[in-house]
Amino acid sequence: MLVHAILNLRITSLRAILIVAILLSASCFGGGNQAPTYIPPSPEQIKAKQERKQLNSQILFSSVSSGSNSKDYLIGPTDLLEVDVYESEKLSDEVRVSSRGFVTLPLVGNIQVDGLTARELEEKYEGLLKSEGYIRNPHVSISIVEYRSKVVDVMGLVNEPGEHELIGRQTILDALADAKGLTDNAGNTIYLSRTNTNGSKESYIIDIDQLLKESGDPQLNMVVQPGDIIFVPEAGNVYVEGAVKSAGSYSIENGSATVSQMISKAGGIASYADQDEVKLIRYHSDGQRQITDLDLESIRNGAIADPVVQDGDAIIVGTDGTKKFFESFRLNLGYGLVGVGYDPPDS
User: Do 149-342 and 74-146 fall under one CATH topology?
Assistant: First the structure.
């Protein structure tokens, strides 16, 4: 019995030694869980991060300086209002504006509020309460809890992309500040797309550096409208607009691309395009803008070179006036700004 116990003890000890040896071997040769190797950022990455931090500080400062005012906000469908009647708590309530622009208020029923400011609605409700004999001298306070009817989409490389409420009069810089600024790998160009009430389309390409230098210029720091889409692309992108099948921002793949290749990325030219009216717009580091007129047909035939594009370039393809797909095509070339406008195609 004693011999048997001693043998079992030796076997157990050998097993323990073997397990320890395996674990030590695994840790030595990478089989265990090792802490990830820290790779310090490169000088270029540190510089880019510092520049982006400084740029975001400028965006926030410019936004605060412009000072949007909620008193100017016009109430619209789906907004949530808080109504307080100081003479009676029973008349105080939260109400949602209907899709047709109406709210139902105690005692007075449905009233139209679409397009009114909060102060105008206060006066309107006070007047109804007084004229209908409910309260002799009413005092009403209206506050907007949710600004749902007027939003702008801020997309791309911003820290908080998505829908952002338009409270009063707001500019592009205000919208970027609401989105918490740009990410480290954002490009130096902003694209704004707008559909007007008559169905016409407008697109704007704005140089960020120039925008911050001239933040007080309304042509650059434009007042945004409900439904606007602001897009901040990644660095290394080119914007293709005008008479192409799928206008937008496209990346320069493999480090190099030409004008015709970028147009192909946008689906190619539309049937109403004028191949003689192609413009390559480029901003230089000194703020100067270079505009090069191109002929796609000559590029295809090899008569002229197919220019290599750079980060932040814009390619605008014009329309053929003899093809009545568009009533008009408008190109606005301001300093630091490229604007493209066109009306919807004929039905």
Answer: no
Domain 149-342's class? alpha beta
Nearest to 242, CA basis, from 138, 174, 329 = 329
**Left, alpha or beta for 159 (phi > 0: left; psi -120 to 50: alpha)?**
alpha
Mean pLDDT score of the chain, rounded to an integer?
79
Q: Per CATH, the architecture of 74-146 is what?
A: 2-Layer Sandwich (3.30)
**Which of 40-44, 135-139, 262-266 is predicted least confidently?**
40-44
> Which residue ranges make up each domain of the chain?
74-146, 149-342
Q: What is the pTM of this model?
A: 0.64
Residue 222, pLDDT above cutoff 90: no
Task: Transcribe 274-327 into DSSP letters.
Answer: EEEEEEEEEE-TTS-EEEEEE-HHHHHHTSS--PBP-TT-EEEEEE-TTSTT-S
String of DSSP letters for 2-61: HHHHHHHHHHHHHHHHHHHHHHHHHHHTT-S-PPPPP-PPPHHHHHHHHHHHHHHHHHHH
